[in-house]
Amino acid sequence: MTAPRHFLEVDDLDANELLTVLDLARLPDPPPVLAGKGVALLFEKPSARTRNSTEVAVFELGGHPVTMRGEEVGIDTRETAEDLTRTLACFHIAIAARVFDHAHLERMAAVSSVPVVNLLSDRGHPCQALADLLTLHDRWGSFEGRTLAWVGDGNNVCQSLIRAAALTGMRVQVATPDGYAPDPAGAAVLTHDPAEAVKGADAVFTDTWASMGQEDEAAARRTAFAGFTVDDALMAQAKADALFLHCLPAHRGEEVVPSVLDGPQSVVWPEAENRLHAIRGLFLFLFGTA
Ligand code: CP
Ligand code: NVA
Fold this sequence. Notes:
The protein is α/β, with parallel strands linked by helices. The chain has 2 domains: 10-125 and 273-287, Aspartate/ornithine carbamoyltransferase (Rossmann fold, 3-Layer(aba) Sandwich), CATH 3.40.50.1370; 128-269, Rossmann fold. It is 40% helix and 15% strand. The protein has 12 helices and 9 strands. The protein has helices spanning 15-25, 49-60, 70-73, 81-91, 102-111, 126-140, 156-168, 194-198, 218-224, 232-235, 258-261, 268-287; strands spanning 38-43, 64-69, 92-98, 116-118, 147-151, 171-175, 189-191, 203-206, 243-246. The protein has a 5-stranded parallel sheet with strand order 7-6-5-8-9. β3 (92-98), α5 (102-111) and β4 form a beta-alpha-beta unit. α1 (15-25) packs across α12 (268-287), α2 packs across α12 and α6 packs across α7 (156-168). The longest helix has 20 residues, at 268-287. The radius of gyration is 19 Å and the shape is globular. The chain binds phosphoric acid mono(formamide)ester and norvaline. The site of phosphoric acid mono(formamide)ester has 8 residues, from α2.
């Protein structure tokens, strides 16, 4: 039996495979490659976009999604991550999970006979990065010579974006407060000055200052991130036609002001819609288009 193809991070795909997934995301009349199959979707944290886009993608490809909340299955409390994975693999063609601890995904992948897909962990959000690349590619037609800026927390979404940019040959400039830099930062250029990060940028990204699981730190983070709000003055220092992206959910008045999030440079709604096309493209890649 060949080993299953997992997608725990963007760079589990090589550069050509990544472009193939983006092409497949736009395939008209996708074939029902999941016909008669189940896909297990496990969520240890809340979700609107990821759950809905993944469930609909599975349905569009002829499959049946089974969504579970973490407390229903109890990873490492009711049974081990390994036993849960072996069980789900009896019923499903793939297992997709949103977890607090990325190590759980690695343990699941290590024993799984079917692909394991990361729907967000403390370390990365690769399905979001696919949708973000698709959004940029739709606008630009290619990634060549482009510069991305990230302003705010060097979090899971930032870390996957850095990997995605490396695979597609884009430069990334990241501004975070001291102590909040992405780790690993890869080839990203790091600064503590938002203006420096957005200089020359073709797209400006941000995300919440307190990710799921960091709610207790929210007040301290609001203080630490003062000066890191993406506002009109900051956008004016990027390229004149720079796009604004945010994975959502957004906190208007914290990491971004309403006039940017809801303004003419924002592509957050196509970005949200592209979560569906991107995950459908990934499933078509994993399970063949024949
Ligand atoms: N962007 C994103 O992953 O949104 P959800 O947390 O609502 O799934
Ligand atoms: N960084 C955020 C992303 C939410 C989609 C979080 O992990 O909560």
